[in-house]
Structure formats: C-alpha cells, structure tokens
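User: Could you check the structure of this?
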Amino acid sequence: MRRVLGSGVPVLLLVGALVAGCSLEHESDAKPEAAAQSSVAPSGELRLADTVDPQLFGTGDGLVLVASRLADDGPYGGVVTSSYDGSGWTSGESLSTDGVRTSGARVVINPSGVGVALWTEASGEESDSEEPTSPPVVARVRQADGAWTEAETLGAMAYLEDVQVNARGDVAVLGYPDEGVRVLALRPAGEDWNLTDLSSYDAGSMALDEDGGVHLATTGTNRGGGGPVQVSYLPAGGTWTDPIPVPLDDIATEAAQIVALPGGGEALLVGTISATWQSTFDTQYYWATEYHLLRRGGTTGGFTERWSHDGATDMRVVADGKGVRLTWIQDEAGQQVEGAAGPTTVPTRQALLTRGPDGAVVRLGEAPVEMSDSEIGGGLSFMTASGCDGPAVIWRTHDEQEGPDHLQVRVGDREATVPDEGARPVVDLQAALACTGGVPWLARSADLEQVGSDDGGDLRIAGGTVVAGPLG
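Assistant: Sure, the predicted structure tokens are below.
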C-alpha cells in the first residue's frame, strides 16, 4: 500500500519519522564540516554549494537560512546556516558537530530572529547496548543578536512532534524517546532548558502564547481510524490544567492542530473521516478527508465549531491577525469505486486552496491524480509561509508519469513560476518562502543530482546547491 503526494499527513508528524530515520555512518565516511562554500551575486542571490533542504525565515529586514549538507551517500552530512542583514549574506556556518551524520534539521525562528534548530547526530561509534537506540535530539537556540547558543541534547528525546517559538523568544519542543512517555522541553527567553514528562498519548501539537503559556492538543490514533481529542494548558510558571475532552461527531484521524490566538483564545483544527470521500484502502491506515475548525475565547470551557469542509486533505492552520489562515488540498471530480468498506468517492483532480481570516477562499492551482486500489499518484505538494501580506504559498504539481512540475509561488496577489535548475525533486518541494521588508524571498535546491529509483526504494539526492534570492 502506498499513498503519495497530497497524503494529508501533517508535516509535524513527518519530521518525527525523518529524525528517527537517521542512518548511522562511521566518522571516517562522512564529509568534513568545513565552512560551506557560498557565493553572492550583485542581486543578493546566495548560492550555497553541496547543500539541500532549505528552510528560510524573515527577521524584520533580514533573513535566516538553514540547510542540510550533503554527505557522500546523500543527505545528511551536517546542518549549516547563513543570514542576510539587508546588505549581504554571511558565509555558510556549520551548526552541527564536525564529522558526524545528522538528520535533517527542524527549525522555527520568529520575526525578531530568535528561534531554535534541532536535529540528531550519530557518530557511528559502537554501542554497549544490545538494543539499538536512536540518537538524541540536539538543540541550538538563535538569539536576538544572531548568535547561536552551544549545542545541548534534550535528555533522551529522539523524535520530534512539534516545535514552537513565540514573539518574546520562549521556545517549546514536544517529542519523545525510543521508549517512554512524551517530553516537553521548555526554554523561557534567556533561561535554561527545562524538561517535563507528559502523560502518554498517541499524537500531539502545541502552541505558545505571548505570555509563554503552552496550549496542548492530544489525539488518540487507535488502530483502525483514530480516537479522542483533548486539550490542556500550562500557564507560564504554573501547573497543567486538567485535560478537557473535545466532543466530536466524527473520528479524528491525525494530530489536531492547536493555535494560540491574541487575547488568550484558541483555535483547533481537527481532521476526520468523511462520510463520502475515500479515507482508507484497508481499514487499517486512514487519512483525514474532512476538517473542522473550532474556536473558544480562553483556555477553559467548550469549543464552538466555526467552519467545516468535506473532501479536504493536508490542511494547515496558522494564526493570521485576529483569526487564522487555512490552506489545504481539495479532492475534486470524484468517481465512485468500491473501497475497503464499501462504495466511496475518489478524486481524479486535486486543487490547492487557501482561506483567510475574512472567510474568502482563493484557488491557487490544481493537478490531476490517479487512484488505484492501493495508492494515489500525482496531485500536489505545498508549503506555506508566514510574515507576508495575504496568502504566501509555494507548491508543485506532480504527474504520476511525468514527475513534478516547476515550482509555483503565490504571495498576496502576485504569482510566479520558478523553473528548476538540474533534476526536479521527486518526493518533496526542496524549497522555502519568506518575506522580509515587504519583499518575498525564495530558497530552493538547484543543480540537483539524484541516484537510485523510487520503485527500488533507494532514491536519494547525490548533489545540489541551495539558492536563495528575492522573488523575480
């Protein structure tokens, strides 16, 4: 069974799998982490050689770029960063330890330039334990002056679920070790890390409010299609409130996404199983095909449903002013087929849509899809950006036979197509978008070289250059 592009699996869950999948490699086989070779064009375009997987963040009038260094057998051979101060880029700086194999980094940086980068490091040394264990998560915090703190491991945490930073620079990380309960790692601005064990649950997301309070949503993901959703709150310097069940008529199928709103309110996005659209191939693995947006005015009391949408997958929610912005993939042009539990509707087309706080919906793009009894091919993959006026989205359409198309970008009312240099990435976007000083900037992987095959399960990137510059 395979469900590809447009899968509806939240990004925050995929990151945990990425960190878990960091393969071990002996030190002598890894590329040394010398300073990344970079060049800057007069236009302000940065080219960072032998790197891929760009992440880009706007910081007032500047930018922060984080990317993964290529190793001899593909990513990941280290984590590097570069920053732009309005006049030029810094040389690529290594964040990870020299000579070790890393996972891809998970990075969050606020508009003031404060944030955190997290990854795992594996030196390849032999372990005395008979049971293999995943390497622990490493964290480095970026401070307001642009300096990064020394690397610290977050206890035995090996997998990431969610990472948040608020406007004043408080950082929160949600994750878990190979065995045991979830762990919340908190670092109030200017203070040390504090790790706290949480009660056991299947999937979670969190938000940080302006006061440093942690809003937590947990979801049961029981075998065969989901479970209950609960929310709780940890005020800064206080103790957790008792979990409050969120009553739902439908079954949740993935981690509910929680957002802290200005003034103390919360928004909650819950993905559920549609009564009409295909949501499973075998009644064992499910994905969301209907979403519900709920709101409440504080951290106590019940939620009120404000909006719901059928046939939607892979929906993302972010705070936008006094409300939220939603972006999602919409299944369209349905056909009736026999599914795992009877006749269902399957899409033959997917569209990319975004809905602003005013309720206006904008159609960004579309792509044909093909569905068989065991997989979906083609469709869309996308990523959103914050800090821009209006919708800010990058995406690719994917054809099952022809592969991915060029990058498409939408910022406000502005649209652009960005042709690829070198091979097009087969699996992911390999691009990021951010706005600074009212100008959109795009970071992307160019000059890609790929070896192996998707069918053989050994497809990987063997060469590439991260290019960052203002959107032309």
